[in-house]
Amino acid sequence: MVQKLYIRPIAFAESPQSEEGEAVRLAGGLVYASRFALLVREGARLVSRRRLSVPEMADALTALPDALAREGEAQWAALRQAHAPLQCGVRTIRLDQPQVMGILNVTPDSFSDGGKFLDKPDAAIEHASAMLEAGAAIIDVGGESTRPGAAAVWEGDEAKRVVPVIERLAGSGAAVSIDSRRSTVIEAALAAGAHIVNDVSALRHDPRSIEIVARSGVPVVLMHAPGGADDLHADGAYADVVLDVFDDLRERRDAALAAGIAREKILLDPGIGFGKTLAENLALINALPLFHALGQPILFGASRKRMIGALSNEAPAHQRMGGSLAVALKAIDAGAQLVRVHDVAETAQAFRIWRGLRDAALTDFSQMI
């Protein structure tokens, strides 16, 4: 049976000098990892786990069988890889620091804000403008609810919902992504000025989508969801949710590359809340640094999701800001480059404080004594 290798960061430092240089800058951001778990599994069984420091990694990889050694070298390089900024029209989105993606749902039934902006383009634009002013780098526009049990939407209705909003936002100079899994909607959104495609099916739902994205040259977010066309939340059976999601995202990344999508245009999202139990979601969040080993920027989205309610006395969606901020900060502590949220102003403020603490740690020379 084929063996697979994974390099998971397991210990972190506030700055490289606090570890006397023996910490790597994770994915070119402001997070520094000093120890790693080198995992090998065969099928569903973990056969090896070693804990290694940075200086020990080279010898450990060299000692592996050839195929595992090559994969290990690729993952080790990916963990230390800095990512180029995203160019979104006139906007340049840097990925060496965490960025906020603001959610704009023009739907009747999204779990948190469904109906607030449906058929109300002026209200939608006003809300998007407020998010941009509060610190959102990108506005993610969606016309279909992907919550569990949501009714299917005809693609013509979905396009009718999102295109006018995207046209106005892109025309104003905002960076805009289209949250859709349908090729006709993606095509219409790109024609209207969208700069990024955010596909919750990782380009599996509609065979034409991958061709359109490749031809357009825009960045694309590939999100993990276990289910098919009828229910993205179905079929969530995992031997090890962290490693299984890692493998699935690696497969979708490789499919995108094979279709002609440039590597620097691919972002990955582990799909918190999609076909995962509460325990599985928590495991993925705790293991988020592992996903840098795939060599792509990470988008993280858990804002106001069911798992927060489950841990908060069943708080309704509109009362989950505190939990949303907690997981957003956990994500940027793991080096996530983009965090997709409803509460932009509060998240952006939390990120600024986080950034201030990081900058202070980098300039604290007392750690070198």
Topology:
Layout lengths: L2 E11 L10 E2 L6 E11 L2 E9 H9 L3 H14 L6 E3 L2 E3 L5 E7 L15 H14 L1 E7 L12 H17 L4 E4 L3 H10 L3 E4 L7 H10 L3 E4 L17 H18 L7 E4 L8 H9 L12 E2 L5 H5 L10 H13 L4 E4 L2 H19 L7
Parallel strand pairs: 7-8, 7-14, 8-9, 9-10, 10-11, 11-12, 13-14
Antiparallel strand pairs: 1-3, 2-3, 3-4, 5-6
Helix pairs in contact: 1-2, 3-4, 3-11, 4-5, 5-6, 10-11
Please describe the structure with a list of short key phrases separated by commas or semicolons:
TIM Barrel, eight-stranded parallel β-sheet, four-stranded antiparallel β-sheet, 14 strands, alpha/beta, 369 residues
How would you explain this protein's 3D organization?
The chain is α/β, with parallel strands linked by helices. It has two domains: 77 residues, no CATH class; 273 residues, Alpha-Beta Barrel (TIM Barrel), CATH 3.20.20. The strands form three sheets. The chain has an eight-stranded parallel beta sheet with strand order 12-11-10-9-8-7-14-13. Strands 1, 2, 3 and 4 form a four-stranded antiparallel beta sheet that branches. Strand 10, helix 6 and strand 11 form a beta-alpha-beta unit. Helix 3 crosses helix 4 and helix 10 packs parallel to helix 11. The chain starts with a strand and ends in a 7-residue tail after the last helix. The relative contact order is 0.13. The model has no long low-confidence stretch (mean pLDDT 93).
CATH class of the largest domain: Alpha Beta
Global Rg = 20 Å
Q: What's the name of the CATH homologous superfamily of the largest domain? A: Dihydropteroate synthase-like
What would you call the structural class?
alpha/beta
Residues in helices, as a percent range? 25-40%
User: Please, how many domains?
Assistant: 2
Number of helices: 11
Strand content: 15-25%
Tell me the number of strands: 14
Question: What is the subunit arrangement here?
Answer: single chain
Whole-number mean pLDDT: 93
Side-by-side strand order of the widest sheet: 12-11-10-9-8-7-14-13
Q: Terminal Cα separation, in Å?
A: 50 Å
